[in-house]
Specification:
268 residues, alpha/beta, 5-stranded parallel β-sheet, 10 helices, globular, disordered N terminus, SGNH_hydro_sf, GDSL esterase/lipase
């Protein structure tokens, strides 16, 4: 028998709150919204120690689940085969935000060792547009962020190739910074045309002296410092779009809101 002011006994079975389809965490107790990182190897590697994806997990801890969907070696042409699987039009709540980070492979040069990955720049832009339009069909409120390909350090790529293949290393560069810049320009142009944000990593990294070895581990992929630049710019872009981590609700009450003698009140 309960006395006045007493706390009822904790239930023997606790059922977690259920988030209705499409809910995005408007109040405590709802399932966390998702942020999806969609891209090539630079995205696939983003959950490694010091990675920009792992840093996003920390930034949005208990506010959103950050899901990596990175595919090493993929270009935008091949990415089109994935979008209906990763972003179905029905049956699952759409992401709160999605980053699209392709172009490093699309920009591989014809007639060189990586030409299988090459996508003409006009097709690259059109493929990005198809991905963005599909995401808009999934949700008219999703924050969609384009990220340009990073700059390329040709000498760094050559050193890496020699370390891997010795005398059998390629004789001509399979990527150049100039060509990566052409693709970055098309990514930026598309973002303007579709009125969505774009993180211009190609230009941002080159603002720093010695970016070639500071930000790139093999002339293309990112060092921890390079990952930090991507993380900083992505977070800034998400914040500008209204996704400020400090203003987003926790999925369940903060521990300071739980009464030790009557915890159930915090979960009502």
């Amino acid at each position: 028998m309960m006395t006045s002011g007493s706390c009822p006994a904790a239930p023997t079975t606790v059922h977690p709150p259920i988030c209705p389809a499409g809910a995005t965490g408007g109040s405590q107790g709802l399932a966390r919204p998702r942020m999806v990182l969609f891209g090539d190897s630079i995205t696939e590697q983003s959950f490694r120690p010091g990675g920009w994806g792992a840093a996003l997990v920390d930034t949005y801890s208990r506010k959103a689940d950050v899901v990596v969907r990175g595919y090493s070696g993929y270009n935008t042409r091949w990415a089109l085969f994935l979008i209906h699987h990763i972003f179905p039009l029905d049956g699952i709540a759409p992401p709160l935000a999605t980053t699209i980070f392709f172009g490093a492979n699309d920009a591989a040069l014809l007639g060189r060792t990586s030409e299988r990955q090459h996508v003409p720049v006009s097709e690259y832009k059109d493929n990005l547009k198809k991905i963005v339009n599909h995401l808009k069909d999934c949700s008219n409120s999703m924050v969609i962020v384009l990220i340009t390909p990073p700059p390329v350090d040709v000498e760094g790529r050559e050193r890496f190739a020699r370390s891997m293949y010795g005398e059998n290393a390629r004789k001509l560069p399979e990527r150049t910074n100039e060509m990566a810049g052409v693709y970055a320009g098309q990514c930026i142009e598309l973002a303007r045309e579709m009125h969505i944000p774009c993180v211009n990593i190609w230009s941002k990294m080159q603002e720093t002296k010695g970016w070639q070895t500071l930000y790139l581990s093999d002339g293309l992929h990112l060092t921890p410092e390079g990952n930090a630049v991507v993380h900083k710019e992505v977070v800034k872009t998400l914040r500008d779009a209204g996704l400020k981590a400090e203003e987003m609700p926790y999925d369940f009450p903060h521990h300071s809101k739980i009464d030790g003698s009557c915890p159930d009140k915090a979960f009502q």
